[in-house]
Amino acid sequence: MKLALPAAPTVAVPVAGTDLSFPVRRIYCVGRNYAAHAREMGFDPDREPPFFFCKPTDAVVYVAPGAIGEFPYPSETGNCHYEMELVAAIGKGGRDFSADDALEHVYGYALGLDMTRRDLQMKMREMGRPWDIGKAFDHSAPIGPIHRAADVGHPAKGAIWLEVNGATRQKADLADLIWSVGETVAYLSKFFELAPGDLIYTGTPEGVGAVVKGDRIRGGIESLGEFEVVVV
């Protein structure tokens, strides 16, 4: 096949403790998957079915352990928010599988940030329009290395936290997820055929807030370590 234009480079995230990289195919994100966050966004946290939005693959910004990643402050917003999340990486594809079988499809886990143009997201929500310009912009998916489930298991509990300039902003436990990773992956598989390389951002706890240029965002999840990003 002869291409009319050069193909975009493969987006890949290093796998912790190996010389391997995980090629990213799609990025799915779960909305309002912690009850306290649902309340702070003005919604009832009753256990309704999860909903999803997507980010483009090249929104990934890899943040290496011990390094400080850079998040360029996005254009056309005056209210850009952080959202600390557990990311599940799919290693085995499939469609319409059960929650009991779902974790067999998960290759590993990573730290992630779902960066959000909150003002644009809210404006689109009020107008009944898609959230894309609020969620799916360039550099909006910082991520740490992927830790293989074979090494760390499948985290179902443990602290998830985030600080801005040393002040704690988010602090919760993975056990607070409304829909567990297995339930989320299984439900998503009813609507999309999942494939190796898919990433699923599983939702953020309460305490989301705005950042400005120069802010340092530091977050972590028990068993997966921590990472740091500076807003530039």
Task: Sum up the structure in keywords.
232 residues, alpha+beta, Fumarylacetoacetate hydrolase, domain 2, 6-stranded mixed beta sheet, 5-stranded mixed beta sheet, 6 helices, globular
Describe the structure.
With 232 residues, the protein is α+β, with helices and mostly antiparallel strands. The chain has a single domain, classed as Fumarylacetoacetase-like, C-terminal domain (Fumarylacetoacetate hydrolase, domain 2, Alpha-Beta Complex), CATH 3.90.850.10. It contains 6 helices and 18 strands. The strands form 5 sheets. A 6-stranded mixed beta sheet has the order 4-3-15-8-9-12. Strands 6-18-17-13-14 form a 5-stranded mixed beta sheet, with no helix packed on it. It has a 3-stranded antiparallel beta sheet with strand order 10-7-16. Strand 1 and strand 2 (21-23) form a beta hairpin. The longest helix has 9 residues, at 118-126. The protein is globular, with a radius of gyration of 17 Å. It starts with 11 loop residues before the first strand and ends with a strand.
List the helices and strands and how they pair.
Layout lengths: L11 E3 L6 E3 L3 E5 L3 H6 L10 E5 L4 E3 L5 E4 L8 E3 L1 E7 L8 H4 L3 E8 L2 E2 H9 L5 H4 L5 E3 L3 E2 H4 L6 E6 L2 E7 L7 H8 L10 E3 L7 E3 L4 E6 L3 E7 L1
Parallel strand pairs: 3-15, 5-11, 6-18
Antiparallel strand pairs: 1-2, 3-4, 7-10, 7-16, 8-9, 8-15, 9-12, 13-14, 13-17, 17-18
Protein name: Fumarylacetoacetate hydrolase family protein
Organism: Rhodanobacter lycopersici
Keywords: Hydrolase, Metal-binding
